[in-house]
Write a structure and sequence with these properties.
The complex is a heterodimer of chains A (about 100) and B (about 120). Chain A has about 100 residues and is mainly beta. Chain A contains no helices and 10 strands. In chain A, strands 2, 4, 5, 6, 8, 9 and 10 form a 7-stranded mixed beta sheet that branches. Chain A has a 3-stranded antiparallel beta sheet with strand order 1-3-7, with no helix packed on it. Classes of the chains: A mainly beta (about 100), B mainly beta (about 120).
Chain lengths: ~100, ~120
């Protein structure tokens, strides 16, 4: 099983700042089959990024994904008030596993 | 695209429950559908999946032998039959659609809460 480790667990920032979230895989993802989701309290997760760097439909361009192999990053260029949430990474190279999440507060 | 779960509730340990997920707005039979669960305030766990042709299933080790996934494509409904329920099965269960195969998850239902408690 591919284990995904997200860091940091909590990121304390202010609106307008840049957020950098990391997701590390226990094995190299030979194909960059990695997605990022945003979850707000009481709601289901929402797809942000797929295939490591492709933005999902309707996602603002302040969200960007990068990385390959074992190291992946989600960047939010300038935090808006609505961006404060929990973010999860997911790999779908070998079955499906999720990271433990990063809370942006 | 809409996915609407139902069937959650309170059940005693050792009991059974069947979750349903009604899908609309897409070609239901063509897509792999899955169940993902989340304990309140905790992370996401991939529970079970069923391919569009119904030929391929996946179960997490934690539910293997106790849960059964099925689908009725004529009624656009996905099911999760849960038996021998344990306290640790207490979670919000989301019905999720894959964009392709077992790829990224492009649509999620609102979730249904299952509580296993005496």
């Amino acid at each position: 099983e591919i284990v995904l480790t997200q860091s940091p667990a909590t990121l304390s920032l202010s609106p307008g700042e840049r957020a950098t979230l990391s997701c590390g895989a226990s094995q190299s993802l030979s194909i960059s089959y990695l997605a990022w989701y945003q979850q707000k309290p009481g709601l289901a997760p929402r797809l942000l990024i797929y295939d490591a760097s492709s933005r999902a439909a309707g996602i603002p361009d302040r969200f960007s994904g990068s990385g390959s192999g074992t190291d992946f990053t989600l960047t939010i260029s300038r935090l808006e008030p609505e961006d404060f949430a929990v973010y999860y990474c997911q790999q779908y190279v070998s079955s499906v596993t999720f990271g433990g999440g990063t809370k942006v507060e | 695209v809409q996915l609407v779960e139902s069937g959650g509730g309170l059940v005693h340990p050792g009991g059974s429950l069947r979750l349903s997920c009604s899908g609309s707005g897409f070609s239901f039979s063509s897509y792999t559908l899955q169940w993902v669960r989340q304990a309140p305030g905790k992370g996401l766990e991939y529970v079970s999946a069923l391919s569009g042709n119904g030929g391929t299933t996946y179960y997490a080790d934690s539910v293997k032998g106790r849960f059964t996934i099925s689908r009725d494509d004529s009624g656009n409904t996905l099911y999760l039959q849960m038996r021998s329920l344990r306290a640790e099965d207490t979670d919000i269960y989301y019905c999720v659609k894959s964009a392709w195969g077992v790829g990224w998850f492009d649509y999620w239902g609102q979730g249904t809460l299952v509580t296993v408690s005496s």
